[in-house]
Design goal:
globular; 126 residues; 7-stranded mixed sheet; 51% strand; mainly beta
Length: 126
C-alpha cells in the first residue's frame, strides 16, 4: 500500500515562494504518476501538476504554468512542488496524490488517483 505525507505549507506574502514536499512510501515508485491538487473552501478540487515517476513527464494546470515546478527525487522517494510568484488566489489546501498506472497515464482528473495525502495548507496574503 502506498502512503503519502505532505509538508512545507505555510503563510507567505504575495510574490513569495514555497516548496511543498510529499514523501511517498511505496515498493515500486515507477508504477506511479504523482499529482498535486489543491482545494480552497467552497471550491472544487483543482489540478495543479503531475509527473510520471519513470519518465519524469510533467503536466501543469493552466493557472500555475510558468510559476510552479513539479519534480521527483527517487533517492528520497519524494515529490516536490516548487511554487514561485505566489498569489492570494493560490491559497488552498494542497494534496499529494498517487495514480498506480504503470506509468502510462498523466491525468488531471482527481478520480484517477487512488491514494491521497492528508494535505498541507498554503495561505498567501496580499
Amino acid at each position: 500500500q502506498v502512503q503519502l505525507v505532505e509538508s512545507g505549507g505555510g503563510l507567505v506574502q504575495a510574490g513569495a515562494s514555497l516548496r511543498l514536499s510529499c514523501v511517498v512510501s511505496a515498493r515500486t515508485l515507477n508504477l506511479y504518476t504523482m499529482g498535486w491538487f489543491r482545494q480552497a473552501p467552497g471550491k472544487e478540487r483543482e489540478f495543479v501538476a503531475a509527473i510520471t515517476w519513470n519518465a519524469g513527464t510533467m503536466y501543469y494546470g493552466d493557472s500555475v504554468k510558468g510559476r510552479f515546478t513539479i519534480s521527483r527525487d527517487s533517492a528520497k522517494s519524494t515529490v516536490l512542488l516548487q511554487m514561485n510568484s505566489l498569489k492570494p488566489e493560490d491559497t488552498a489546501k494542497y494534496y499529494c496524490a498517487a495514480d498506480r498506472n504503470l506509468g502510462s497515464r498523466l491525468s488531471a482528473q482527481p478520480q484517477n488517483y487512488q491514494t491521497w495525502g492528508p494535505g498541507t495548507q498554503v495561505t498567501v496574503s496580499s
